[in-house]
């Protein structure tokens, strides 16, 4: 399926695809848009069942989510692009880099993992979303996504809480099942795209050892740990993340 998307930035510039995490929408990248769109054609999209992309009956696999990106690139006649993804978006990026390497230039993986265990915890989360809806997950998610000072700010609670409540319950659950079944570790050495891996030092969901495992597996990968940042480090420490992304993506210009 072709997901909902927004294209921003100068026509003819290199394309950077930005992929959102579980429970968020393309607004996750608002703090990056201005910085990146000065140099790049920025393509933000909503993962299946998130934002304005409808959910479809599940379960999903990462191949489905990666396939959505490939369909979108084909739809827009984009042959190759840089790619940055947070959490589930980073998993989508690793799948693309392992299975469609001819479509990616440079890869940035933020607050993500190549394997998350225990797998049953993700299946339980999927069951909870189907039973009680994503509205039941708002409080717990905000405390994982942000350090306490940011998690208590009214504007942050409103923006990210509303995005999570707006997720399609089945779409969220099916994406959680894709995470449960994910195992990208063995394919990491096949990734040829120059890769930047970013982790928040205080991230309880995908702490720095997950980034270091990816960095050890991907040839030549660079790992950066952001202090005073939790799971959505691109929101919490936007200036630092923007600087890292711009440096990484402009090295090919």
Question: What can you tell me about this protein's structure?
Answer:
This protein has helices at 30-37, 62-75, 88-99, 119-132, 138-145, 148-151, 154-166, 169-181, 208-217, 233-236, 238-250; strands spanning 5-8, 15-19, 41-45, 81-86, 104-110, 195-200, 222-226. With 253 residues, it is of the alpha/beta class. It has one domain: Alpha/Beta hydrolase fold, catalytic domain (Rossmann fold, 3-Layer(aba) Sandwich), CATH 3.40.50. A seven-stranded mixed sheet has the order 1-3-2-4-5-6-7, with helices on both faces. Strand 2 (15-19), helix 1 and strand 3 (41-45) form a beta-alpha-beta unit. Helix 1 runs parallel beside helix 11, helix 2 (62-75) packs across helix 3 and helix 4 runs antiparallel to helix 8 (169-181). The longest helix is centred in the N-terminal third of the chain and has 14 residues, at 62-75. The protein is globular.
Number of domains: 1
Strand order of the largest sheet: 1-3-2-4-5-6-7
Q: Give the uncertain stretches in residue-range form.
A: none
Radius of gyration: 16 Å
Sheet having the most strands: 7 strands, mixed
Terminal CA distance reads 31 Å
What amount of the residues lies in strands?
A: 15-25%
Mean pLDDT figure: 97
CATH topology term? Rossmann fold
Q: How many helix segments? A: 11
Instruction: Tell me the helix content.
Output: 40-55%
Could you state the order of secondary-structure elements as H and E? EEHEHEHEHHHHHEHEHH
How many strand elements? 7
Overall geometry comes to globular
The CATH superfamily bears the name Alpha/Beta hydrolase fold, catalytic domain
> What is the CATH first-level class name?
Alpha Beta
Give the CATH architecture: 3-Layer(aba) Sandwich
């Amino acid at each position: 399926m072709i997901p909902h998307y927004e294209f921003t930035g100068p026509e003819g510039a290199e394309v950077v695809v930005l992929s959102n995490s579980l429970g968020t929408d393309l607004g996750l990248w608002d703090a990056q848009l201005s910085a990146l769109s000065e140099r790049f054609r920025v393509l933000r999209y909503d993962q299946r069942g998130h934002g304005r992309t409808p959910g479809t009956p599940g379960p999903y696999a990462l191949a489905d989510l990666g396939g959505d990106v490939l369909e979108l690139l084909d739809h827009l006649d984009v042959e190759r692009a840089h790619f940055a993804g947070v959490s589930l978006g980073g998993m989508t990026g690793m799948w693309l880099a392992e299975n469609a390497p001819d479509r990616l230039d440079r890869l940035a993986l933020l607050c993500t993992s190549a394997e998350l265990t225990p797998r049953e915890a993700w299946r339980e989360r999927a069951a909870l979303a189907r039973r009680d809806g994503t509205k039941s997950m708002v409080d717990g998610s905000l405390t994982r996504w942000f350090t306490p000072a940011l998690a208590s700010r009214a504007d942050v609670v409103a923006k990210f809480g509303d995005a999570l409540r707006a997720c399609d319950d089945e779409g969220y659950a099916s994406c959680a099942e894709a995470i449960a079944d994910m195992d990208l570790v063995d394919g990491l050495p096949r990734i040829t795209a120059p890769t930047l891996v970013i982790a928040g030092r205080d991230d309880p969901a995908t702490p720095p050892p997950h980034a270091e495992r990816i960095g050890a597996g991907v040839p030549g990968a660079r790992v950066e740990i952001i202090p005073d940042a939790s799971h959505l480090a691109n929101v919490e420490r936007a200036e630092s993340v923007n600087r890292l992304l711009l440096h990484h993506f402009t090295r090919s210009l």
